[in-house]
Amino acid sequence: MTNSTHFGYQTVAEEEKVHKVAEVFHSVAAKYDVMNDVMSAGLHRLWKAFTIAQAGIRPGFKVLDIAGGTGDLAKAFAKRAGSTGEVWLTDINESMLRVGRDRLLNNGMIIPTSLCDAEKLPFPDNYFDRVSVAFGLRNMTHKDAALAEMRRVLKPGGKLLVLEFSKVWEPLKKPYDLYSFSVLPWMGKRIANDADSYRYLAESIRMHPDQETLKKMMEDAGLERVQYFNLTAGVAALHTGIKL
Ligand SMILES: C[S@@+](CC[C@H](N)C(=O)[O-])C[C@H]1O[C@@H](n2cnc3c(N)ncnc32)[C@H](O)[C@@H]1O
């Protein structure tokens, strides 16, 4: 029997979700960066800057960026880890990874890339000092399996950083819903010629575990000292946890 899961507000078979998520990111890859800036009014840059600061990357660190897409975090991490470090840009989607790799090359940076599923990481146990995933976990089918994999590849003492959309502060819910379900698909249509992908974005955010639930999921995956920081009134949240 096939298990079912959510793709935004739809209930679909697990395999179908994987294909639908792939379609979304093949479709938006070319316009992904400009859409990010426009739809968040540049806020995603601040959320990522906060994540980079919390990562505390030092020269020589081994870092894995999962669902890294167009490479914002990997680029910043590689600069900080320096020539003695090892920073991987990884994603399950070839179109997104290609845009990311080309962007890094245009910045004169050659870093290892891998096309891989976060639920089955092709890396050894206890290898990385830091593992990050930004706006990726929401799209994964088995989030518990992905979190367990992230923990597995971390060294003891290593830190996991999960940046994701989260549950917005209640008084802002109405205007945020209006923006998400009306303005966002309209922008998606105008800029990326794809309203559906941005409707999926709005729905998938509502279906994603809230701050406390994700904290508990990280603890269940074996991470310790799990904490979270609300960003822009909970529009996004950064969760961090340590492997002890
Ligand atoms: C919204 S983008 C985020 C890209 C980048 N991290 C950023 O913050 O700009 C989400 C990414 O998650 C990737 N993704 C979805 N499911 C995945 C999985 N199971 N394993 C790895 N990456 C996945 C998608 O291909 C897509 O590139």
From TrEMBL:
Superkingdom per UniProt: Bacteria
Pfam families: Ubie_methyltran
InterPro entries xref list: SAM-dependent_MTases_sf (IPR029063), UbiE/COQ5_MeTrFase (IPR004033), UbiE/COQ5_MeTrFase_CS (IPR023576)
Keyword field: Menaquinone biosynthesis, Methyltransferase, S-adenosyl-L-methionine, Transferase, Ubiquinone, Ubiquinone biosynthesis
Entry keyword annotation includes Protein biosynthesis: no
Molecular function in Gene Ontology: 2-methoxy-6-polyprenyl-1,4-benzoquinol methyltransferase activity; demethylmenaquinone methyltransferase activity
Sites where the protein binds S-adenosyl-L-methionine: 70, 91, 117-118
Catalytic activity: a 2-demethylmenaquinol + S-adenosyl-L-methionine = a menaquinol + S-adenosyl-L-homocysteine + H(+); a 2-methoxy-6-(all-trans-polyprenyl)benzene-1,4-diol + S-adenosyl-L-methionine = a 5-methoxy-2-methyl-3-(all-trans-polyprenyl)benzene-1,4-diol + S-adenosyl-L-homocysteine + H(+)
Pathway: Cofactor biosynthesis; ubiquinone biosynthesis; Quinol/quinone metabolism; menaquinone biosynthesis; menaquinol from 1,4-dihydroxy-2-naphthoate: step 2/2
EC number from the UniProt entry: 2.1.1.163, 2.1.1.201
Enzyme class at the top of the EC tree: transferase
Claim: Transcription regulation is one of the keywords in the record: no
Biological process terms in GO annotation: aerobic respiration; menaquinone biosynthetic process; methylation
Known function: Methyltransferase required for the conversion of demethylmenaquinol (DMKH2) to menaquinol (MKH2) and the conversion of 2-polyprenyl-6-methoxy-1,4-benzoquinol (DDMQH2) to 2-polyprenyl-3-methyl-6-methoxy-1,4-benzoquinol (DMQH2).
Recorded family membership: Belongs to the class I-like SAM-binding methyltransferase superfamily. MenG/UbiE family.
PANTHER family on file: 2-METHOXY-6-POLYPRENYL-1,4-BENZOQUINOL METHYLASE, MITOCHONDRIAL, METHYLTRANSFERASE
Protein name according to UniProt: Ubiquinone/menaquinone biosynthesis C-methyltransferase UbiE
Gene name for this UniProt entry: ubiE
